[in-house]
Hints:
Blueprint: E1 3-9, E2 13-22, E3 25-35, E4 39-41, E5 44-47, H1 49-66, E6 70-76, E7 82-86, E8 89-91, E9 94-95, H2 106-112, H3 115-122, H4 131-141, E10 149-152, H5 153-162, H6 169-172, H7 187-193, E11 209-213, E12 216-219, H8 225-232, E13 241-244, E14 248-254, H9 261-265, E15 269-272, E16 277-283, H10 287-296, H11 302-311, H12 331-338, H13 346-372, E17 378-382, H14 389-399, E18 402-406, H15 410-429
Parallel strand pairs: 1-6, 6-12, 13-17, 17-18
Antiparallel strand pairs: 1-2, 2-3, 4-5, 5-9, 7-8, 7-10, 11-12, 13-14, 14-16, 15-16
Amino acid sequence: xxxxxxxxxxxxxxxxxxxxxxxxxxxxxxxxxxxxxxxxxxxxxxxxxxxxxxxxxxxxxxxxxxxxxxxxxxxxxxxxxxxxxxxxxxxxxxxxxxxxxxxxxxxxxxxxxxxxxxxxxxxxxxxxxxxxxxxxxxxxxxxxxxxxxxxxxxxxxxxxxxxxxxxxxxxxxxxxxxxxxxxxxxxxxxxxxxxxxxxxxxxxxxxxxxxxxxxxxxxxxxxxxxxxxxxxxxxxxxxxxxxxxxxxxxxxxxxxxxxxxxxxxxxxxxxxxxxxxxxxxxxxxxxxxxxxxxxxxxxxxxxxxxxxxxxxxxxxxxxxxxxxxxxxxxxxxxxxxxxxxxxxxxxxxxxxxxxxxxxxxxxxxxxxxxxxxxxxxxxxxxxxxxxxxxxxxxxxxxxxxxxxxxxxxxxxxxxxxxxxxxxxxxxxxx
Length: 430
């Protein structure tokens, strides 16, 4: 029986999941899980990319010990972040998107090309951590001198496995430099910013075999985790989705990017999918809850946290997407600063966070319906947040939509589906 390995890495944890087809269904087994998180280095937030690679290889070894004949593997991670390279050597540090290094250069980028023009060309929402701003900061800091490549994090990890540098489409679109029209890096943007042209290679589609690692084929999945997650959602028709993790990504599949003025004003993004466009919006997500837990009650089971939130009667809410919540030293202090009344208990903070998320989902769905001219009756929620019955109920109440909660590893499932499809197509060709 042929088995496939999905290596799915999020901003707080990663996991290795083996999958195989049996009786017409996809079966999965998690074999390895490891922690992840930003590391502070010289006043900046960074990723320990070497530790991540170590976990990737350790998980593969465990998977091979149980299943010696794995057909292929693929890696997906969050978007926008990358590793600069000089030949075969990485340039350290590997900055994390929550680091504030881009704040000073954003106006300079927009002087080179106004955001309205960037949006018209790419359809990518403004986020201060978009790859375009990170690379421009690298340029001004002199970090691009002598650099031969930049690889998005899953591309770098797979390069370290198979020795092949790849540039996958869905993840590239997250950075704000890929043309919504051509699906390739936009040379007009690259030239306007004076970035080295050799860094921006032709993009490859999910399902491309790029090499081998110890006899296992290395395949590009949709390496942006939300791209794989949408592939893994067993949705009916074209219902909207929320991929609920550290971020909540709320969106819908569309045939083409929507780059009109209303979409720009509401800060909606158009990111690459597998033969479709993902029209979606970033919402702060479980980051709020996880950081509150780290401060207020570290280690407390989420079941107990949710029970306390349900008992609370705290009614005030915050703007879940406010900049103050992006990377605060203290999440509790950020909530305190944003609220007129101070929460009196742990449950108050979490009730506030969950209700604020539900209201942000409502607002985003209202924008989605206005911008697409469509009405939706339901919404599919996958990922860690889908397991939270309290948040699901709040979401139903706030949006008036039927919530279809699918507490599955949608990202790993989508990763595996792309690998299995790739294998099937190769078998047919041979």
